[in-house]
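Notes from the 1:1 (GR / supervisor)

We went over the backlog. Supervisor wanted to see one worked example end to end before approving the batch request, so GR pasted a single chain during the call. The sequence is below; no edits were made to it. Supervisor asked that the structure be written out right there so they could see what the output format looks like.
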Amino acid sequence: MSEQAGTARPDGRRAWVWLGLCLVVGLAARLGVVALPHVAGSLTVSGWPISRWVYQPLFPDSLEYLRIASNVRQGDGLGLDRASQIGRMPAYPVFVAGVQVLFGERLVAVRVADAILGTAVIALVFLLARELYGPREGAVAATVAAVYPFFVVQALLTLSETLFTVFLVAGAWLLVRAWREADLKLSALAGLAFGLATLTRGSFLGVAFLVAVAWGATRRLDRRAVLCALAMVGAFAFAMAPWVARNWRVSGGHLVLTTLRVGPSLYEGLNPKADGGPMMDRINWDEGTAGLSEYERDQHWRRMAFEYARENPGRALALAGAKLGRFWNLVPNLEQFRGALACAVVGIPYALVMLLAAVGLARPGRRAEVALILLLPVVYYCVVHMVFVGSVRYREALMPLLVVVAAHGVTTIWGWARSGRTRTDGDRAGVQRGGDGDVSPRAGAGGAGDEAGGGGG
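Structure output shown during the call:
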């Protein structure tokens, strides 16, 4: 309480007004990036004309999302094709299909929708930082989220990360409130949000369970805390159930919690030619899989990956280190995006956020909440990609959580600066007061001593 009183935090109304400004700036920036290929076709990025992005997404993943969305619109289900019925998580293709039903099949409609999602992340980051730390941190976090370059550029990429981030940050915000209030309804809503995040990116699967265990452990198995943790896991399971049931039917009676690309993804990261980065296009996926079902192919590549790791433990460990480096790399991993401008745009803001987040974590207080609600998903996701493949792209989906901690770092530094100025001003005032009263204190002291001495004599 004394800490908050001493930092002169802005009132709620000012913070909300500032959020409105951040939302306007953030949406304008994202829509500007979406419009760029249409209005600046001669511009090149790393030697590539951006006019090609008007009709063509940058990543192969985007093409698959668009193809699944087309199948959804035509009533052909959530599969990519007959050979890949459980190849992608469903949330983002369903979102894309909904946008296309409402606004047409042009790629720009999906990008505008992603820009709006990215703007929603600004509001959610504000709410999370405000709930966890206070209004000032909320305003700082919203400011960073509005202009952080990768968040802005995501509107152009047609990838699942933007939708994933919405569910991730919403879940974290609900979890903060549930943690503090021991509220079963909020706990269930947090679990539902984490379930939707997992339906967007399957690699998030274990987070809800780890958070539930940490919740119960940090509260020493308090009955209410256990009930809240169970409510969260139950809602998570409820969100996942339709997808798991559909996979059971499609796969012929096999339990598939996420997708049947886990095996290929494992082998992508654990094979004789692996370098820690994506290499799907450099592997012959038909080799040894002729006549196998989708489920059997997944199992085949899982065995191949595990056998390679078991036979080459040192190499597997070295690859894990390489993936870790790629995940947290200061600059883009792809050579075509290693130009000076691209490195500066990606590297400088990222480095600042990480440094400020380190300051925020170093400040005492709320460490259990931060570790449980913000850092546990970050650590989990990082470890997952040390097993599969490492990429800056995967890291950036988690950066909103670190932006929240960085906002706390900003206010911490600001508080240090203010307290330093206050001490300096106080010292100067004290010296001035001492100079002004130099005679009278000394005379008073002498008079008192003389009186004491006279009385004693």
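Supervisor's comment: The longest strand covers residues 44-45.
Batch request approved.
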